[in-house]
Records
---
Amino acid sequence: QPVLTQPPSSSASPGESVRLTCTLPSDIPVGGYNIYWYQQKPGSPPRFLLYYFSDTDKGQGSGVPSRFSAYTDTSANTGILLISGVQSEDEADYFCAVWTRHVVFGGGTKLAVL
Amino acid sequence: QITLKESGPTLVKPTQTLTLTCSFSGFSLSATGVGVGWIRQPPGKALEWLSLIYWDGDKRYNSSLKSRLSITKDTSRNQVVLTMTNMDPTDSATYYCAHKVRSGGYYDPWGQGTLVTVSS
């Protein structure tokens, strides 16, 4: 059972914005950890997208489009991946991760671009 | 350009020991801060972090699997080896090795992965 909770599926139409959530357990405060986001397409390994700690401490993976961004909602103890202007090529599984004593992953969200 | 490639058996029997090798290029595992990790993914399921070895030999293991895992490195050959004992059908998964970046807690890039099936 993954420690980080992600909805199993989401959908968006091309051009829309979509928010994918990653809820941390109460003993892992979202404000105290980097949240890492990975994208995985069928038959391929995960690809690092970006990480977010704060608006002044964040980083984009090499070659990752700027339409991918992230932020956190401390009231919900949740990390959020925002994809602005979704494209068909963004259809994939998205995993969040946190490094505590070791890396823990979320269960992943399958994004369908309809 | 950093590349990693996993190799090992595709089929192991229950109770056997799995040995996987990660061969990499484009970086040195003697460079400060660098690491190589192993992550697995059962078909259609989530990722599970297994182990990490740092440039200085420091080793980390998933606490729930620690008694079954061992990770070593051969810096001169640019290889990292993961062994997992007492394999079970529930260990069937794609096993990935990945480069842990020097200054962050993320893995980039990953190898293509190797599918391991545990069956008698």
---
Amino acid sequence: SQTIHQWPATLVQPVGSPLSLECTVEGTSNPNLYWYRQAAGRGLQLLFYSVGIGQISSEVPQNLSASRPQDRQFILSSKKLLLSDSGFYLCAWSVRASSPLHFGNGTRLTVT
Amino acid sequence: AQKVTQAQTEISVVEKEDVTLDCVYETRDTTYYLFWYKQPPSGELVFLIRRNSFDEQNEISGRYSWNFQKSTSSFNFTITASQVVDSAVYFCALSEGGSEKLVFGKGTKLTVNP
């Protein structure tokens, strides 16, 4: 069966520090991969998605970037965190377009 | 552009009451998919259902039921005989046909009190 791993679960980082969140999927090949952010208002904002290695689509101009170095690995990064980057970050995968997304447990990021 | 509106920000009910969560969507595509997700306090989003635009049949799964009406662009979710374990934030979402993007509504926080 397929599983998705996301880490760390919680992270407290100072403003201006770098960020790297990692997500890996097991049990499937060539999944679509996604990063969402959920801010305090509870809405889910799509940040990035990827349909293949090295293919990244950005939805919102911001302080973040994403990379997909391997088929089942998706990384969210920042060179310098801002206070506004605080939130709950969720990684997800799907089999194909319009298929259900399956989410990881999320990373709660607090930028201080 | 696609859009999902969940007008109910928070709902509070007493256990065993029935509750309906509203979802209204906007899309110009004739082919699209609608979803419901549950986010319990632990934070992980759990997939509940997917419905495509060509299938307007209502669906029932245990205490859960979904009413899809294209005429009103709505995809409402009803929980019958609610239980405390149903307390969560529920999200409605939309994906246009062939698109990798899933757009979520802002969610409805449901609290079921004993």
